[in-house]
Write a structure and sequence with these properties.
Shape: globular
Strand order of the largest sheet: 3-2-1-7-19
Distance between the termini: 44 Å
Radius of gyration: 26 Å
Number of helices: 19
Strand content: 5-15%
């Protein structure tokens, strides 16, 4: 990349002054090949915060030396790097140094790929003719992050694909959800694709509009839009075993039409179909009632009496965002939530740091790695049950209990003058047993004079508000139902029928979706799921990382099928069942099977069907190189 330097040397120096030392050190190693930058006195101190201190615990004079060395390297332009790809051995040393902790060796090949030092793409052994490729057609349902990831992979291979999207714009959840405060709860340098032009993020945790704009940019960069049919809904799809085709019915503005494809992909994910709770007397309420996922920009909140039902991730963003605009805000809570404080959650990224991320070679890759790691696999050991731990009711192990105490202390410090709220807000179940939430001034908001937290059960809706079980009426003009999504439906709601007319909804009866690697289902040939069962990132991470793992898996499957003359693959029942046994056995050891709480990660039978039990590095390895011996194969 040709670096565009600031107009004055002083500008470059001021940008570097705002840089993260742990990242600048890695830039020096790449550019000079000198590994002394990985050793004391330069080696950063370990910092587990999601947004770490940019001085990395390094003495001031050493920081000055590092910044001066970077400035000297680039003051006259961009030199060629000595180390473009560090290889596994040096990569491991660099990762350990930048983090100030030991890193397991299996992460080196993953992160070399994730940071673009080696290619992730599926590759042809020998590119097929255009005539052969023209016989292929991949139908992708949904135009969110998964569809974009797969579209990029297929586009690079030249495999024809069409994306159908029922809404009038791409973006998936970031297009549909537009409630005040809507944003990502993963650092956005991690919640972004490993490919594409660098995005000039303005803050560490981006808001909805910035995320949607980013997805639009990626779609434009890779010509995804020319493959998308908006306002087009898949209403049914059936497998024709004789013709080895998926026959899909599409609902468009001009009526129904039939679409044939060799492959069908569900890219609708897990959190796409709102699950509004229902209450007695709903029809009696005179005001506005809506699910948070159905928010409209024309809703007038100022001076209104607003009720919010639910205290999950959406409510934790919504409530603090509207509290100062409304006359009163009543929050109805079924279960208290743990929330992590994050210093800098709403802070902007400084101008100098943004310049480094946009222009300085290797800076964005290593910055992104730091964010990936801090919200990655590090938390998983704290979620594993210790059979010898004496207090399993409150925590699953000693480390988890330490986090419980830290999070409890945070709640107590936020609500110190409100013992009534403390009683309502300290959860009884172990930390991270439900989705990880980030404090967005949630507890401070609950203390506001116009905000009330109600833990009594809702009895019914009345004409002018909500009546709780104790008979008390609390007035409301607007009721926002923030009770999540029909997570267990996933692709089953698409009305997909496989071999012998077997319907996916029947295969996943009793709210129990299962799939090999979360991607393939027996008796549904050439059907691939993205963010399917047991692939939801629950201990951290990013659905974008998952989508890239799965898009590589799907695209490699298609490459191997085309090259080997295979018309259809159908995962073997025994391979599927063995994988599910391993998933369930692993979940039995993890926090999401703890009996002390309910969570949307598991169904009514207590089986965890949504969350992934594996480390991200494990899932990356599982999905990197498909083993077609696990599939029944039908020759072309």
């Amino acid at each position: 990349m040709n670096i565009e330097m600031p107009r004055k040397k002083l500008d470059l120096a001021s940008a570097i002054a705002e840089g993260d030392i742990r990242v600048l050190l890695m830039v020096l190693v790449h550019m000079t090949g000198d590994a002394r930058w990985l050793e004391p006195p330069y080696r950063p101190k370990r910092d587990v915060r999601l947004i770490p201190d940019p001085d990395a615990g390094v003495p001031g004079e050493v920081q000055d030396e590092v910044r001066a060395a970077v400035l000297k390297l680039f003051e006259n332009g961009e030199p060629e790097p000595v180390v473009a790809d560090p290889g596994n051995e040096l990569m491991l040393r660099m990762m350990s140094a930048t983090l100030g902790e030991n890193v397991a060796p299996e992460y080196a090949p993953l992160m070399r790929e994730e940071m673009g030092f080696v290619p992730r793409d599926a590759r042809w052994t020998r590119r097929p003719s255009n005539e052969v490729l023209a016989q292929q057609q991949v139908l992708i349902v949904g135009a969110g992050v998964c569809a974009i990831a797969l579209g990029v992979a297929l586009g690079r291979l030249g495999i024809p694909y069409t994306i159908v999207e029922k809404n009038d714009e791409l973006g998936g959840t970031w297009y549909v959800n537009r409630y005040p405060g809507c944003g990502v709860d993963t650092p956005n340098h991690s919640y972004s694709f490993s490919f594409g032009a660098r995005n000039p993020w303005t803050r560490y945790f981006a808001q909805r509009q910035e995320l949607l704009d980013y997805l639009r940019k990626v779609a434009l960069e890779y010509d995804i839009r020319s493959h998308i049919r908006l306002n087009t809904e898949l209403t049914a799809s059936r497998w024709d075993d004789g013709r080895r085709r998926w026959i899909s019915t599409l609902k468009t503005k001009n009526g129904e039409e039939t679409f044939e494809s060799t492959t069908l992909v569900s890219a609708i994910g897990q959190l796409n179909d709102p699950s509004p709770a229902h209450f007695k007397g709903e029809e009696d309420f005179d005001g506005l009632t809506l699910h948070s996922a159905r928010w409209s920009d024309d809703i007038k909140l100022d001076g209104k009496r607003v009720a919010v039902i639910g205290t999950g991730a959406t409510a934790m963003q919504l409530v603090p965002s509207i509290a100062d605009r409304v006359a009163s805000l009543t929050v109805y809570q079924r279960t208290a939530q743990w929330a992590r404080p994050v210093a800098g959650l709403s802070d902007p990224i400084t101008e100098g740091a943004r310049w480094l991320l946009a222009h300085l070679p290797f800076y964005v890759q290593w910055y992104r790695f730091n964010m990936f790691w801090r919200y990655g696999d590090g938390l998983l050991p704290l979620l594993r049950k210790d059979p010898n731990w004496p207090h399993p009711d409150r925590a699953v192990n000693k480390g988890n209990d330490r986090h419980r105490q830290e999070l409890t202390d945070f709640i107590l410090s936020e609500l110190k003058d409100r013992p009534d709220l403390i009683e309502k807000c300290v959860p009884t179940y172990p930390p991270y047993g439900k989705r990880i939430l980030l404090d967005n001034n949630w507890f401070k908001t609950l203390r506001k004079p116009n905000v009330e937290l109600v833990t009594d059960n809702i009895d019914r809706f009345a004409e002018d508000g909500i009546v709780t079980a104790d008979g008390k009426l609390r007035p409301a003009d607007i009721i926002v139902i923030s009770t999540g999504f029909k997570v267990s439906e996933m692709a089953a709601r698409l009305n997909i029928s496989g071999r012998d007319g077997k319907n996916l909804k029947q295969a996943w009866a009793n709210d129990n979706p299962t799939a090999y690697l979360g991607i393939a289902v027996p008796d549904f040939p050439n059907l691939f799921l993205m963010l399917g069962p047991n692939t939801g990132p629950a201990h951290g991470g990013s659905v974008i990382f998952q989508s890239e793992c799965q898009s590589r898996y799907i695209s490699v499957c298609l490459v191997e099928m085309i090259e080997q003359g295979i018309a259809a693959i159908d995962v073997r029942q025994d391979a599927h069942d063995e994988y599910i046994r391993k998933v369930d056995a692993e979940h039995a050891q993890l926090i999401w099977t703890h009996p002390g709480m309910t969570t949307y990660y598991r169904n009514k039978q207590g089986r965890v069907f949504s969350a992934m039990p594996w480390r991200f590095v494990d899932y990356w390895k599982m999905t990197h190189d498909p083993d077609l011996s696990q599939y029944r194969q039908t020759r072309a």
